[in-house]
Design goal:
The chain is of the alpha+beta class and 203 residues long. It contains 5 helices and 7 strands, in the order H-E-E-E-E-H-H-E-E-H-E-H. The strands form 2 sheets. Strands 1-2-3-6-5 form a 5-stranded mixed beta barrel. Strands 4-7 form a two-stranded antiparallel ribbon. Strand 1 and strand 2 form a beta hairpin. Helix 2 packs antiparallel against helix 3 and helix 4 packs parallel to helix 5.
């Protein structure tokens, strides 16, 4: 009986080692940017999505606490066009109405989205920045697309997420909590009142 227990204990220990090793391997392959990690901005996809280089690894990141206009609604419109004919009449009409609204507003949105992307590119593309995830454990480190949710700060100390809202190139994203959200909301209200960026008359 003692031999059986010893063997069982040894087996559990070996399994534990394998689990720890596997977890370590996963963590090293998918390393969080963490707090105040230095990174190089490789690409700006739009006003709130970038690709960075950290310790030789490329990481896709979504700027936390903000939401910039989309650069294109083309894929969404195309997807609606593909599925609408398979839906019941009521749903079909609803899809057509949504598509019509998107088509009317897509060019307006694209203009604002391109402006946000171009502004972000001018100030951080190719530069070294400080990247941080949120300090609150309630804030998930990644979104559903697997992108790290981060704050970006320049070498001179500018909070890029906040700056985009301040310049009128993004909104405070009130759909999801983060520790800086309240500040971003107040900044966004001031930006709208001052008619900066997307809030300009005729924009």
């Amino acid at each position: 009986m003692k031999n059986i227990r010893r063997r069982a204990t040894a087996a559990v220990s070996v399994i534990g080692v394998f689990i720890c090793c596997a977890a370590y391997e996963v963590n090293t392959r998918d390393k969080s940017p963490g707090l105040n990690t230095e990174a190089t901005v490789l690409k700006v996809h739009d006003g709130d999505t970038i690709t960075i280089l950290v310790d030789g690894d490329e990481q896709s990141c979504r700027l936390l606490g903000i939401d910039a206009p989309e650069v294109s609604y083309t894929k969404i419109i195309h997807d609606i066009d593909k599925i609408w004919k398979y839906l019941p009449d009521g749903r079909r009409l609803q899809c057509q109405e949504i598509q019509a609204i998107l088509e009317v507003n897509s060019e307006i949105s694209k203009k604002k989205g391109v402006a946000a992307r171009d502004y972000l590119s001018r100030i951080i593309l190719g530069t070294s920045v400080q990247v941080s995830t949120d300090t609150d454990c309630k804030v998930t480190p990644k979104d559903r697309f697997g992108r790290w949710l981060v704050y970006i700060k320049t070498k001179s100390g500018v909070d890029i997420n906040r700056d985009l809202v301040d310049k009128g190139h993004a909104l405070a994203d009130e759909r999801f909590y983060c520790t800086r959200l309240r500040d971003y909301i107040l900044v966004g209200q001031a930006s709208k009142k001052a008619k900066r960026g997307m809030w300009k008359e005729g924009e």
